[in-house]
Amino acid sequence: MIEARGLTKRYGQKVAVDDLSFTVKPGHVTGFLGPNGAGKSTTMRMMLGLDNPTAGEVHINGKRYSDLRNPLRTVGALLDAKWVHPNRSARAHLRWMARSNGISMQRVDEVLEQVGLTEVARRNAGGFSLGMSQRLGIATALLGDPEVLLFDEPVNGLDPEGIHWIRRFMQGLAAEGRTVFVSSHLLSEMALTAEELVVIGRGKLIAQCSTAEFVDSAGSTSVLVRSPGAQQLQQLLGEQECTVRTSEADRLVVDGATTEQIGELAAQHQIVLHELTAQRGSLEDAFMQMTSDAVEYQTSLGQATELTAQGVAR
C-alpha cells in the first residue's frame, strides 16, 4: 500500500505538488493521471526518495522508502527507461542491481525471460530501442519480486503487441495482490488497464475513485436509439427538452434522458425500437472536462493552426 499525506514540493516560488494526499491499495491497477506539469513525476520521485518533500510524507507498506532495507524487495520502479549505463549489457545491469539488494543471480534470468529480453541479454543497453529499454526497466522493477510497483509511462516506445502485453502483465500483478501504480498520458490505454484512478492538476488532488465513477462524474452519458420511427421519436424527445443528434435516418443519440425514459416514451406512442443502449462517455472526455481548469498551457485551435503553419513555412 502507498499512503501520501500532505505531500508538498516547492522549487523556489514554484509549487510543483501542493498538499497532496491519497492512498493506493493493493489488488488493483491504479492510474495516476494529470495534465503536463501537474506534478506526477515529482510525486513519484518523492515516493522513492529521489526528491525530498518540502512538507508531508509518503509511506510504502507503512515505511518511508529511505527506511526500507533492500528496497528492491519491497518496491520496484520504472521512472526513466534510459538511465542504464549504455556500455553495460542488460544482464550485467540486472546482476549489478541484484547484488546491491541480495537477490539471487537466478532471478536475473527469470525476469529477462518474463519481459522477452533473453535473446538480447548480452547486448549493450545503449543500442536498445526505446521499447527494449522499457522492457529492461520493467525487468529491473520486477527483480526483487516486490509487493509495490511504480511505473511512469511504461508503454512509451512499445508496439501494439508490447502495449497489450504490459497491460495484461500489470493486471496480472495486481491480481496477485500487489500494489500497482501507473502514470500515463495514454488515456485510452488507462481506460483498459486501470480500475482505480488518482487524478491531479497543478499539484492538487482532483479525484480519487474508480475509473467508472470518474467517467460517470463527468455526466457525459448518452443513449443510442435505433428505430424505424426515429423521426417521430426525435420530435417527442425535443418536446421533453432532450438534446437529440442524428447521423442516419433510423439512428438517434440522445442526451438528457435515460434508457428507461426513452423506452417508456416510445411505448406510450407505440414506436418500435430496434436498439436502446446507454453509452458512457470516454475517459478522455471525462479527463478533459475535469482537468480543464488545471491545464498549465492552453492553446486555442486557431493558435495551434497558426503555429503549425509557421513551423511548416520555416
UniProtKB/TrEMBL annotation:
<dbReference type="InterPro" id="IPR003439">
    <property type="entry name" value="ABC_transporter-like_ATP-bd"/>
</dbReference>
<dbReference type="GO" id="GO:0016887">
    <property type="term" value="F:ATP hydrolysis activity"/>
</dbReference>
<dbReference type="InterPro" id="IPR017871">
    <property type="entry name" value="ABC_transporter-like_CS"/>
</dbReference>
<keyword id="KW-0067">ATP-binding</keyword>
<dbReference type="InterPro" id="IPR027417">
    <property type="entry name" value="P-loop_NTPase"/>
</dbReference>
<dbReference type="InterPro" id="IPR003593">
    <property type="entry name" value="AAA+_ATPase"/>
</dbReference>
<dbReference type="GO" id="GO:0005524">
    <property type="term" value="F:ATP binding"/>
</dbReference>
<dbReference type="Pfam" id="PF00005">
    <property type="entry name" value="ABC_tran"/>
</dbReference>
<comment type="similarity">
    <text>Belongs to the ABC transporter superfamily.</text>
</comment>
<feature type="domain" description="ABC transporter">
    <location>
        <begin position="2"/>
        <end position="227"/>
    </location>
</feature>
<keyword id="KW-0547">Nucleotide-binding</keyword>
<keyword id="KW-0813">Transport</keyword>
<protein>
    <submittedName>
        <fullName>ABC-2 type transport system ATP-binding protein</fullName>
    </submittedName>
</protein>
